[in-house]
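Exercise 7. Given the encoded structure of a 432-residue chain, write a plausible sequence.
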């Protein structure tokens, strides 16, 4: 059993700390948000993530997990300290390291013996050196700073943590390597990668940037398919059967990527390249393509309703950037909704999980519906932006009867075009 402190109990920190507690460690989560800490100690979590709330409550009860605002005591009583604070983007795309530096300063002031400090936040290459320098300025004893990037997918983060496809550890210290091997000894993964700190930091950025590239690539193919009369879903299937590409490739056409990782990490890597005198043209175009794709649904809606959308009633299904999460950061749905509102349209929205988060951004500019079928009543067009499973199971005949016009724009290719035509819909999807 390791004594662990996790500084920052947002998405990454809360999942990491809770799962490490479940593995038999003694974990303390630290945050400056007193309300969040009080809620967490009652088992109330600030995010939606499948299976996480149950694990938090279980480990609180077993006293393997607790939360505090007292960073000093937590750090002093720990063998391992994770830094899992936010690294938001700056206006120029660079990464704001203020929270990481602040965490490092707090750690430095409370060092009382050898500890392994683990960067779990997504940080620019070289941040390990920054953290080490800050700690060394106040503490002259032995310590190690390690990079251990996370590869969690929102919606399946608990499963991903407990069943990792790879564990990346960046360290040049044999002592730190031993600690990390012991920490992750429960996992039966052959893909345990030990490397230097900077390489580990780069692996995280490179992975997310490559996945984002796949998405923008297939969306560009989808746009070409629409012009030529090809079917992008079948194109994707044919590509993924190539063993060099693989069945898990991010080759599903839609309205672009969003969330807290891909947009930020693509911008961050572009900025890192620029700072080192390298133009990362591929990634610049990935970002440009994604921004254009987010705006592409408006044109499809106008094909059905005409250019003038003033007074039109439009229903949007899906607010989260992907299913099984309540995260609306950089969500394509928000881009579309703003486009519609700017053109005088009236908008109703439905999302099974993310509406509360969206309300913080959209306020009362839209109507929030709690019933899937009711949400389309008297609407001139239905637009699907997130591929929630419940959308696939809906009675399409009932939906058609509720709509003013049988118009649907499917931004995630949820339905089959031939079936929609048979049912009498005027249906536009992506790349088909």
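Solution.
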């Amino acid at each position: 059993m390791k004594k662990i402190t996790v500084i920052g109990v947002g998405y990454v920190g809360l999942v990491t700390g809770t799962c490490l507690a479940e593995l038999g460690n003694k974990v303390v989560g630290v945050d400056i948000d007193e309300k969040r800490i009080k809620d967490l100690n009652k088992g109330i979590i600030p995010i939606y993530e499948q299976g996480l709330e149950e694990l938090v409550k279980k480990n609180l009860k077993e006293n393997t997990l607790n939360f505090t605002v007292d960073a000093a005591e937590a750090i002093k009583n720990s063998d391992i300290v994770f830094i899992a604070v936010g690294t938001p983007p700056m206006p120029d795309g660079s990464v704001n390291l203020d929270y990481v530096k602040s965490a490092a300063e707090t750690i430095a002031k409370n060092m009382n013996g050898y500890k392994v400090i683990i960067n779990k936040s997504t940080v620019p290459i070289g941040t390990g050196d920054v953290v080490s320098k800050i700690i060394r300025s106040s503490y002259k004893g032995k310590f190690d700073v390690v990079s251990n990037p996370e590869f969690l997918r929102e919606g399946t983060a608990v499963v991903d943590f407990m069943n990792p496809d790879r564990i990346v550890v960046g360290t040049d210290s044999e002592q730190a390597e031993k600690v990390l091997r012991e920490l992750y000894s429960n996992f039966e993964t052959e893909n345990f990668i030990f490397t230097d700190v900077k390489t580990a930091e780069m692996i995280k950025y490179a992975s997310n940037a490559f996945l984002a590239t796949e998405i923008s690539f297939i969306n560009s193919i989808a746009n070409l398919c629409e012009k030529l009369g090809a079917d992008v879903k079948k194109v994707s299937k044919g590509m993924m059967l190539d063993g060099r590409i693989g069945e898990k490739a991010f080759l599903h056409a839609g309205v672009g990527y969003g969330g807290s990782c891909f947009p930020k990490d693509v911008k961050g890597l572009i900025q890192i390249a620029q700072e080192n005198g390298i133009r990362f043209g591929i990634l610049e175009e990935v970002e440009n393509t994604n921004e254009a794709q987010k705006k592409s649904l408006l044109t499809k809606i106008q094909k059905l309703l005409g250019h003038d959308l003033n007074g039109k009633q439009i229903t949007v299904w899906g607010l989260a950037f992907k299913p099984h999460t309540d995260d609306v950061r950089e969500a394509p749905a928000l881009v579309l909704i703003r486009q519609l509102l700017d053109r005088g349209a009236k908008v109703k929205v439905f999302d099974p999980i993310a509406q509360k988060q969206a309300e913080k951004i959209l306020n009362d500019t839209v109507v929030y519906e709690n019933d899937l079928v009711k949400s389309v009543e008297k609407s001139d067009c239905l637009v699907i932006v997130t591929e929630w499973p419940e959308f696939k199971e809906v009675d399409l005949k009932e939906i058609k009867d509720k709509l003013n016009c049988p118009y649907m724009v499917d931004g995630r290719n949820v339905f089959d075009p031939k079936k929609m035509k048979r049912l009498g819909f005027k249906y536009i999807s992506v790349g088909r």
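Remark. The chain has three domains: 3-194, 204-292, 295-428. Students should compare their own answers with the one above.
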